[in-house]
């Protein structure tokens, strides 16, 4: 087997391809939604509730379909699934460009949900994990750096393009460029790992019968009956709920404390630190216990939220935003590392699909929960206390319950 530390190792080209997949799906299907909301309101006069409803439906559809990723991979293979995701995302962007009726809007967002299935965290984790063992933590961290970069690179460029050529031309141009880049890269670089790789079974050849039974793959029913699964799913779902809720409400929380301009700076600081944190984790991830790293990340976010709840000092608020941001990406990077360590490679897409559906669905409820608590209590104080509690409980569960699933020892 080739040396994973060598720059010539083919797995690093897979990492770069997955970086581009993450950059595109998070950039256009997540961070870009703010652009779509403004422009579609302006062009069609649609209420924000109509557009945001389509966005929410898209996320929910994606979270349901991702449960069945293992069956889809068994039929298509990871490469074809990634290509289908690229085509779906490009189609959704083109349809948004010409949408003139609500049904077209909802079809576009439904296509976007298929893009999430083919280009999202399960597929990227499976692709990269199949190529790496010793440097898996670094490889997955670098691939998911594309997720953080989506908001830094794609969204500003999309806004600039919309300003110069208009929304319709901008969306069609962006979709064409994305296809021109991602399709050749996926065809050329995404493929099965060397046969000698212990993880190669996770990239099954769709032309061959499934060998899940022979390789020890578990069913979804078996997965949900294992305590190991729930000690991953529950804490990360709680952490993502608190994290997404804070990110959505961050400016509203901070404006009364530090003013609108400095609240905007705090968001920028948090985003920048998310990139720094993901890179930092990648450097050391392969030498860390991922459960303990997850607990430290969750607890640090609780400390950051506690600081924000207790101070109006600008420097402390900015420092707390930086601390919170440092661990934002970790809640995406660490779950696949834990799953790879505690479950067989053949079971990865089953477990990761279930995990993603649960954490994604509960995470989507975070903003609503924080908003309801804020409305009930008349301020964000109680909502922050609730978020802190969710983070601390999640940290205790993920670190305190040490469960080894049936299958594989931790890498040395």
What distinguishing features does this structure have?
globular; 2 domains; disordered C terminus; Growth Hormone, Chain: A; mainly alpha; 412 residues; 0% strand
What is the CA-CA span between the terminal residues?
17 Å
- CATH class identity of the largest domain: Mainly Alpha
Which overall shape is indicated by the principal axes computed on the Cα atoms?
globular
Portion of residues within helices:
over 70%
* Oligomeric assembly: single chain
Question: What name goes with the CATH superfamily of the largest domain?
Answer: MFS general substrate transporter like domains
CATH topology of the largest domain: Growth Hormone, Chain: A
Average pLDDT number: 85
- Our count of domains comes out at 2
Q: Main sheet?
A: none
Beta-strand content = under 5%
The structure class reads mainly alpha
Number of helices: 18
The run of helices and strands is HHHHHHHHHHHHHHHHHH
From the alpha carbons, calculate the radius of gyration and give it in angstroms.
Answer: 21 Å
CATH architecture of the largest domain: Up-down Bundle
Low-confidence stretches: 198-215, 403-412
Got a strand count? Answer: 0
Short description:
About 80% of the residues lie in helices and about 0% in strands. With about 400 residues, it is mostly helical.
Fold blueprint:
Blueprint: H1 11-31, H2 33-44, H3 48-65, H4 69-76, H5 78-98, H6 102-119, H7 121-131, H8 136-165, H9 167-189, H10 212-215, H11 220-224, H12 227-258, H13 260-284, H14 290-310, H15 314-326, H16 330-342, H17 348-377, H18 381-400
Helix pairs in contact: 1-5, 1-6, 1-7, 1-8, 1-9, 2-3, 3-6, 3-17, 5-6, 5-9, 6-7, 7-8, 7-16, 7-17, 8-9, 8-13, 8-16, 12-13, 12-16, 12-17, 12-18, 13-15, 14-15, 14-16, 14-18, 16-17, 17-18
